[in-house]
Amino acid sequence: MQINEALIRDVVTQVLSEVGHGGPVAGRSFAGRHGIFEDVDEAVAAARDAFEQLSRRGMEDRKKIIDVIRRISIDQCVELGTMEMEETKIGRLDHKIEKLKTLGEMTPGVEFMKSEVFSGDRGLAVIEHAPFGVIGVITPVTHSLPTITGNAIGMIAAGNTLVVNPHPSGKRVAAEGVSRFNRGIYQEVGIDNLICLMAEPTLETAAGIFGHRDIALICVTGGPAVARAALNSGKRAIVAGPGNPPVVVDESADLDNAARCIIQGGGYDNNLLCIGEKEVFVVDEVFDRMMQAMEQAGAVRLNAREIVELTRNAITQVGDDRHDAAHPDFIGQDPTVLARAAGRSVAPSVELLFGETDDSNPFVPVEQMMPFVPFVRCRNVDEAIEKARHFEHGFRHTAIIHSHNVKNMTKMGKIMDTTLFVKNGPCMAALGLGGEGYISFSIAGPTGEGVTTPLTFTRERRCSMIDDLWILGKPAN
Ligand code: NAD
User: Fold this and answer.
1) Are strands 36-37 and 443-444 parallel, antiparallel or unpaired?
2) What span, in angstroms and rounded, lies between the C-alpha atoms of 165 and 203?
3) CA-CA distance, 54 to 465, in Å (whole number)?
């Protein structure tokens, strides 16, 4: 008797979809697509199938998969970083390249997958960390492929697979990177589509991912709108939301070090980092010296007239309430572009512009994501910390202090209550770049997971052995 396999598959798919155990595309093979999809149901089905294959493999294979992602991210950082720069047209080429290399080298992998054990009179309980399944992922334009790279390493280390809705303005480099990752992984371990990506991402495809019954968890990295959408999705969500990191400089600070750090962090990738220094509150006693230190360290100071001009051009009003926001034409642009808008010219080697403003200037409350940082004169450290608290907007993301006064550091740390609090370093020191700790480009403030690691993307499972296997304890009967 001849068996019509296609017919059987169709009937099974139909039955499964009717009884609710599979989508309309269940049962189809997506091998060879290398993660690129236009239909949400297909992407989720492919990622689900890849998850089931990955579940049958051991830790050794997860490590091999992650090593492929690391290798591509490091070896091809120049080509992929250049693509990201050409497509998004924001940030700095050298930093686009460096971000891919750094995430490839340093993102925590399977070595973070540790179990906990309780042993005692009544036996043994082992707590292990299991994958969720398929994770729905949203990534920002500020780091399109780097966020996917970091998320993929962490999520796959934990045994999950991904469906990514990238920012539309970074979709091509996202697709190129994902396709390269999947091809490399397929060659290495024979599984395709561990990372699936919507080639034409829209708000509808994002909503389709959020609402899909086979998406077990959501992880979004972006601004306020996507943070709200994820929290309203009805699914468990890990939300890496916006920031507006303030810096406080008190009278005890090493001003030269503070200046170098603010330029390094605030100028990085033209101030696109969510952790990047966005506004500085300096006590009056050292304000003028701090401004000189900034100039000595290579930043260029704009005068009051130039700041008015820059503000007029680079800040715009949006929404029904016409609130201030960064003008898209200036986000992530070079200091030369901002300087021109302020009516002067600066050398291409300049990394950061700065100047004195009061706190009514929109550059203070707005997450400007461009390399001009306002400096506000404060009567004393208490006023500086209070302004820092106010203009961080309760995001509880990142705050920085330059000080050698432990009381001031402690006071600010308590009042800010931020996920990251850096003392005497640039913002990136909090991610292990010039400080202790580890890196991720998804820092989950609103939902509390902090700097994400593979363990962030796991469910706890407990396995209990009653009255046996505590080999240190009671003598065996
Ligand atoms: P964005 O909010 O404009 O977009 C982020 C992503 O969300 C994009 O993929 C976008 O298409 C999507 N999106 C936007 N609204 C949505 C909605 N209603 N439903 C579903 N998806 C939606 O942000 P951006 O300009 O791409 O990135 C910069 C922002 O991201 C900044 O606010 C920055 O602080 C934040 N960010 C945070 C972290 C972190 O770790 N906390 C890291 C990087 C960037």
Assistant:
1) unpaired
2) 9
3) 27
pTM confidence score: 0.94
The first and second tokens of residue 362, run together, are 């929109």
What is the spatial distance between Cα 436 and Cα 475, in angstroms, rounded to a whole number? Answer: 44
* 20 confidence band (pLDDT: 50, 70, 90): very low
Q: What is the pLDDT of residue 5?
A: 52
**């461009």: which residue's tokens?**
370
Q: DSSP letter string over 231-263?
A: HTSSS-EEEE-----EEEE-TTS-HHHHHHHHH
**Among the atoms of ligand 1, which is closest to the Cα of residue 445?**
41
Which DSSP letter does residue 327 get? Answer: -
355 lines ligand 1 (CB under 6 A): no
418 lines ligand 1 (CB under 6 A): no
Asked whether the beta carbons of 367 and 316 are under 8 A apart, the reply is: no
Give the Cα-Cα-Cα angle 199, 200, 202 (nearest 5 degrees): 135
Structure token pair of residue 29: 């093979």
Pocket flag, ligand 1, residue 146 (CB < 6 Å): no
CA 386 – ligand 1 centroid, Å: 27
- CB under 8 Å to 65, separation ≥6 — which residues? 54, 156, 185, 188, 189, 191, 194
State how far the Cα of 176 lies from the Cα of 192, in Å rounded to an integer.
15
For 111, half-sphere exposure in the C-beta direction (CA atoms, 13 angstrom radius) is: 5
CA pair distance 435, 416, nearest whole angstrom: 20
Q: What is the mean pLDDT of the chain?
A: 94
- Max CA separation in the chain (angstroms): 93
> Hey, whose CA ends up nearest to atom 11 of ligand 1?
167
Cα–Cα distance measured from residue 394 to residue 285, given in angstroms and rounded to the nearest whole number: 28
